[in-house]
C-alpha cells in the first residue's frame, strides 16, 4: 500500500530515505552518475524536507542575516548573508525560541511547520525559526566552490553562524534578549543542535537530536550491516540470502577473470577492468546503491517487499541472475548502459560552480568536503555481517577525496580530521547536559549516534521498530506505543529544560 500524505511518507523513509534515484546516459558517453551516488554524501542528513514544499503559514517570514566569513580571524572582516525563516504564530510574551537547525539543504519551513517540535512549541508559546547552512541554498560565503574557498566549510564556523544569529533573533526580532532557546534537528542538523548546546550552554537551554551522527569514523561499515537488517525485517531472509549470493558470486567471477560475463550481465558501458582495483570497487558500490535506490523510490515503504519479491522469484536460478535482471529492467528506460568509470564517478563532485545542479540540489561538493576533512562516514563493505560483498574499501573513498579536492588529502590527513572531530566534540561521550538523543531501531545512523546516555537532564532512546526521523513527526493514530513514548519523552525533556518539572502523570 502506498502512503499518501506528506507527513506519513516522511515517516516511511526508512533507513535509506536520503537516497534518490538519479540515472541516465547518452550515447556520446556524457553519462550521469549511477543511481543513488549523488546522495552518498548526504546520508548523514537523515531525512530532508519534501522537495518543493511551500510554507502553509502566512506568519512564516523570510529574512537574511549578515555573518562573518571567518569567525576566527580578526583581520578578516569579510561578511556574507545567510537566509532564515521565523514564525510567531504560537508566541506568547516571555516565551522561548525554538530553532530547527538547518542541514545540507536549502532553507525550508517544513519541519518548522509540520513536526512534533512545532506542536511542543505551540504548547510552550514559542517563537519558531530555522536557518540556512552556509554554502547551501542562497547562503554562500564565497563566489565558487574551489578547494581554497571551501576552507570555510567547517563545523566551528557553522556553529558560530548559528549562535550569533540566535542572539540577533532574541534581541532584534523577538525583543527579548533573555528568551530561553531550544534547538532541534534531524541527522546532521541534530548533530549541530547538540554540539551547539555543548559549546554554548549559556545561550542554548536544551537540544533534541533525532538520528544525529556524533561519532566521526572513516570506516562506517555498520551502515551496510543495518541495511541488511532492514532487508531481513521488511523483506525476508530469502531476499537477504539472494543478495548475499549475488554479490559474492560476482566477486568470485571477477577474481577468476570472468569479467566478460559480469559486464554482459550488468550491461556495463565498458568491460570491468580487473587491472584497475578502483573500478572493481566502484562496480560493487554502484550495484549496492542502485539496488537501495530502487527500494526507496517514492518513499514507499512497500517497495522493499516488492524488490525482494522480484529478487526471490522462482524464475531465476541464482541470486546473480535475479539481481542482474532486476537492475537491467529497473533502469532500462533511463540508461543504455552502466558507466562505472572513476572519471564519471567523480564528475559532479569536481564541479566548483555554485549553480551546478548537483551542488544546488544535493550539495554534493560542499557536503563531500566536510566528509573528507571532518567526518568520514565512508560506507565500506568490510563487515562479514552484511550482504553486499567485501570489495568496497577505504581506497575508493580516499581516491575520491583526492580527486575532488587535491592530493593533500592523504590517508593521514583524513584520519586526523576524523580524530580531531571526535576529540573536539567528544564523540559518544560528549559529557553535556540538557540533551536528548533519539534513534529508530532500524536506522543505520544509530551506529554513529548515541543510544545510551545519562547526564543531568539528558537521555537517549532507541524506538523499537522505528526508522530514520519517524519520531519527529506530529503524534498521530498511526504511532506505535513505543513511538508515542519517544515523542512524549521529547516533550517532557523540553518542558523540563524550560524550567518546568516533568509530570509523572502524563504519558
UniProtKB/TrEMBL annotation:
Q: Which InterPro entries does this chain map to?
A: AB_hydrolase_fold (IPR029058), Peptidase_S28 (IPR008758), Ser_carbopepase_S28_SKS (IPR042269)
**One biological process term in Gene Ontology:** proteolysis
Per the record, the domain of life is: Eukaryota
- Which portions of this protein are annotated as coiled-coil regions? none
- GO molecular function ontology, one term from the record: serine-type exopeptidase activity
Which keywords accompany this UniProt record?
A: Glycoprotein, Hydrolase, Protease, Signal
Q: Which Pfam families match?
A: Peptidase_S28 (PF05577)
Indicate the secretion signal residues: 1-24
Q: Does the keyword Protease apply?
A: yes
Enumerate the PANTHER family for this protein. PROTEASE S28 PRO-X CARBOXYPEPTIDASE-RELATED (PTHR11010), RE36938P-RELATED (PTHR11010:SF5)
Q: Family membership, please give it.
A: Belongs to the peptidase S28 family.
Return the protein name. Answer: Prolylcarboxypeptidase
- Organism equals Anopheles merus
Organism ancestry: Eukaryota, Metazoa, Ecdysozoa, Arthropoda, Hexapoda
Amino acid at each position: 500500500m502506498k502512503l499518501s500524505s506528506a507527513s506519513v511518507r516522511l515517516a516511511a523513509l526508512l533507513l535509506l530515505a536520503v537516497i534518490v534515484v538519479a540515472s541516465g546516459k547518452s550515447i556520446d558517453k556524457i553519462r550521469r552518475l549511477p543511481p543513488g551516488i549523488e546522495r552518498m554524501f548526504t546520508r548523514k542528513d537523515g531525512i530532508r524536507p519534501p522537495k518543493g514544499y511551500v510554507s502553509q503559514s502566512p506568519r512564516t517570514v523570510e529574512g537574511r542575516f549578515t555573518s562573518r566569513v571567518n569567525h576566527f580571524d580578526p583581520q578578516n572582516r569579510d561578511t556574507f548573508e545567510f537566509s532564515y525563516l521565523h514564525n510567531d504564530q504560537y508566541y506568547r510574551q516571555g516565551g522561548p525560541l525554538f530553532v530547527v537547525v538547518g542541514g545540507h539543504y536549502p532553507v525550508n519551513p517544513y519541519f518548522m511547520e509540520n513536526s512534533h517540535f512545532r506542536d511542543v512549541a505551540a504548547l510552550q508559546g514559542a517563537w519558531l525559526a530555522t536557518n540556512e547552512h552556509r554554502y547551501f541554498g542562497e547562503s554562500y560565503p564565497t563566489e565558487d566552490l574551489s578547494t581554497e574557498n571551501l576552507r570555510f566549510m567547517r563545523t566551528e564556523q557553522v556553529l558560530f553562524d548559528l549562535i550569533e544569529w540566535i542572539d540577533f533573533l532574541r534581541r532584534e526580532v523577538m525583543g527579548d534578549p533573555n528568551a530561553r532557546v531550544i534547538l532541534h534537528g534531524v541527522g546532521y542538523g541534530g548533530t549541530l543542535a547538540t554540539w551547539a548546546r555543548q559549546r554554548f550552554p549559556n545561550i542554548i537551554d536544551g537540544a533534541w537530536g533525532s538520528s544525529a551522527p556524533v561519532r566521526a569514523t572513516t570506516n562506517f561499515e555498520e551502515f551496510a550491516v543495518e541495511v541488511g537488517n532492514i532487508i531481513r525485517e521488511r523483506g525476508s531472509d530469502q531476499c537477504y540470502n539472494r543478495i548475499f549470493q549475488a554479490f559474492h558470486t560476482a566477486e568470485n567471477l571477477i577474481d577468476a577473470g570472468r569479467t566478460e560475463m559480469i559486464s554482459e550481465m550488468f550491461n556495463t558501458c565498458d568491460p570491468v577492468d580487473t587491472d584497475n582495483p578502483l573500478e572493481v570497487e566502484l562496480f560493487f558500490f554502484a550495484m549496492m546503491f542502485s539496488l537501495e535506490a530502487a527500494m526507496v523510490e517514492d518513499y514507499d515503504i512497500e517497495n522493499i517487499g516488492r524488490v525482494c519479491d522480484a529478487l526471490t522469484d522462482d524464475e531465476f536460478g541464482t541470486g546473480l541472475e535475479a539481481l542482474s535482471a532486476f537492475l537491467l529492467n529497473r533502469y532500462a528506460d533511463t540508461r543504455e548502459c552502466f558507466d562505472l568509470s572513476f572519471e564519471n564517478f567523480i564528475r559532479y563532485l569536481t564541479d566548483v560552480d555554485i549553480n551546478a545542479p548537483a551542488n544546488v540540489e544535493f550539495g554534493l561538493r560542499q557536503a563531500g568536503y566536510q566528509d573528507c576533512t571532518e567526518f568520514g562516514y565512508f560506507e565500506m563493505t568490510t563487515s562479514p555481517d552484511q550482504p553486499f560483498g567485501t570489495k568496497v574499501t577505504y581506497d575508493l573513498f580516499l581516491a575520491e577525496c583526492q580527486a575532488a579536492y587535491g592530493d593533500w588529502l592523504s590517508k593521514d590527513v583524513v584520519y586526523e580530521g576524523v580524530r580531531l572531530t571526535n576529540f573536539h566534540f567528544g564523540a559518544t561521550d560528549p559529557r553535556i547536559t540538557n540533551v536528548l538523543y533519539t534513534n529508530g531501531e532500524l536506522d543505520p545512523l544509530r551506529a554513529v549516534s548515541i543510544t545510551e546516555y545519562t547526564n543531568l537532564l539528558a537521555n537517549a532512546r532507541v524506538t523499537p521498530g522505528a526508522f530514520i526521523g519517524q519520531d519527529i513527526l506530529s503524534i498521530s493514530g498511526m504511532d506505535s506505543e513505543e513511538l508515542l513514548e519517544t515523542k512524549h519523552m521529547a516533550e517532557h525533556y523540553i518542558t523540563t529544560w524550560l524550567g518546568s518539572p516533568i509530570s509523572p502523570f502524563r504519558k
